[in-house]
Amino acid sequence: MMSKKSMYRQLEKDCEAIRKQTNRLVKGNLEIDKIEVEEEHLQKVSEDINGIASVLNEYIAEISKILSHLSVGDLLVQMSDTTKFYGDFIPVKTALTKIIVSLSETFIKINDIMNQINLIGENANHTTVLLAENETQIAEEMNLVTLKADNVYEETERNYSNVNKICVGMMKLMEHTKEGYGDAIQMVNAMEQVNVASRNISRVADMIYSISSQTKLLSLNASIEAARAGEHGKGFSVVAQEIGELAQQTTKAVEQTGKLLGESVSRVEECQKVVNLTAERFESMKNSINEINEESLKIVGSTANQKENIREMVNTIARISSTIQNNAALAQENAGTNACLYEETSRLKEILSTFIVEPSKRLVLEKELIDGEARNFMSKTLHALKDCPENEMDEVLRDCLKGEEHIECVYVIDSAGIQTSHTVMGYSVEVGTGENFKPAMPGDDHKSKRYYNQAVGRKSEMYISHEYISSATGNLCSTYSKEYITSFGKSYVLCVDMKYM
Predict the structure, then answer these.
(1) Is residue 342 exposed (0-12), middle (13-18) or buried (19+ Cβ within 10 Å)?
(2) Dihedral of CA 290/296/299/303: which sign?
(3) Residue 117 and residue 94: Cα distance in Å, rounded?
(4) How many CB atoms lie within 10 A of CB 233?
(5) Closest listed residue to residue 56, CA positions, set 87, 77, 94
(6) pLDDT tens across 174-184, in order?
C-alpha cells in the first residue's frame, strides 16, 4: 500500500502529465503524446483526452484539406468517406458539403455566364472594329467625294463665268451683225440706185445715138444740097462733111458707151443679187445669233441655279463628312472601349478558370505519385546531406532539386527547431505575392510545427502532413519531414513540401 504522501505525489505527477498535454492542445497542437498515468480514474481521463485529440485532429485535418482545396479553386473536392463526424460536428460536415456544392454550382453558372459574356464581348469587339474600319473608310471616301464636289463646283463656276463671257460676246456679235445687216440693206439700196442710174444713162445714150443718126442724115442731106449749089456750096459741103464725121464718131462713142453701160448694168445686177443674198444671210445670221443668245441666257440661268445647287450639295456633303468623321472617331473610341471590356472579360474569365468546376480540368495529383516522388527525393537528398556542413546546405538542396517537377520547396531545421538553410524553391514554382505569402528564412523557429515535432518523435520514420496551403506560395501542398543524423553526429530534420496541383 502506498502512503497518502506517495499517492499525492503520484497524483500530482499524473496531473502534471495531463496538464502538459492539455497545454499543447490549448496551443493548437493536436499531435499530443500518449498520456501515461498510474491513477485509475486519471487513466480514463487521459484516454478521453487522447481520444478528443485524435478526433479533433482527424476533423481538423479533413476540414483543412477541404478548405485548402477550395482556396486554390478546386471546387470538385469531396468529403472523405473514412472520416466520420459525430454529434455537434455533423452540422459542420453538412455545412462544408453545402459550401462545396453551392460554390461549385455557383461557379458553374458564373463560368457559363462568363463564357457567354466573353463570346458576346468578342463578337461585339469584332463588330465594333469592323464598324470603326468601315466608318474610317467611309470618312475617307466622303473626303474624296467632298474634294470632287469642290472640284465640280469650281468647274461649274468657271463654266458659269465662261458662259457669261460667251453671252457678252454673243451680244456684241449680235450688235455687229445688226450693224452689218443695216450696212447690207444700205448697200442693197445703193445698188438699186446705181442700177436705176445705169438705166437712165442707157436711155440718155440711146437718145444721143438717135440724135447722132439724125445728125448723119442731116449731114448727108447738106452734102447733097452743097453739091447742087456747086461752087457756092463748097464751104457748106466742108461743114456738112465735118458734121458727118462728128456724127460718125459720136455714133461709135455712143455704141461703145452703150456696150459699157450694158456690161455695167449686168454687173450691177449681179452685185445686187450678191448684196441681196448677203443681206438675207445677215438676216439669217442675226436670227440664229439671237436664238443662240437666248439659249445662252437660259444656260447662264441654269448654270447659276446649278452652281447654287452644287454649292448646297458641297455644304451638305461637308456636313455629312463631318458627321461621319465624328462617327468614325466615336466608333474608334467605342472600339477601344470594347477592346478594354473584352480584355477585362478575358481577364475575368482567366481568373474564373482558376476555379475548377469540370473534372477534366482537375489536375490534383495522385497521392501515390506524390508519395513515391517524395520518398525518392528524400532518400537522394538525405544521402547528399549526410556529410554536408550547414554553410553548404543551400547549394546541395538546389542540386538535388534539378529535374524535380512536383516539389514546392525544401529546407533543413536543426535539433533545436531553428531553420538552418534557406527555403529553396522548386524550379517551376513562383513565390506568392503579398505579405501573407513568403518563404521561411534561416533562424525561423519551427518548434511548434507539427511536421518538426512528428519527425523528431518518429525518429527514422517519415512524417506526412495533411494537405494544406503553403505559406510560401499559397499553393496546395503537403509536407514530408524526416530526422537524420550527419556523419559528424548532428541531428537535423529535412522538410520537403510537395505540390498537389
Answers:
(1) buried
(2) negative
(3) 34
(4) 17
(5) 87
(6) 777 777 767 76
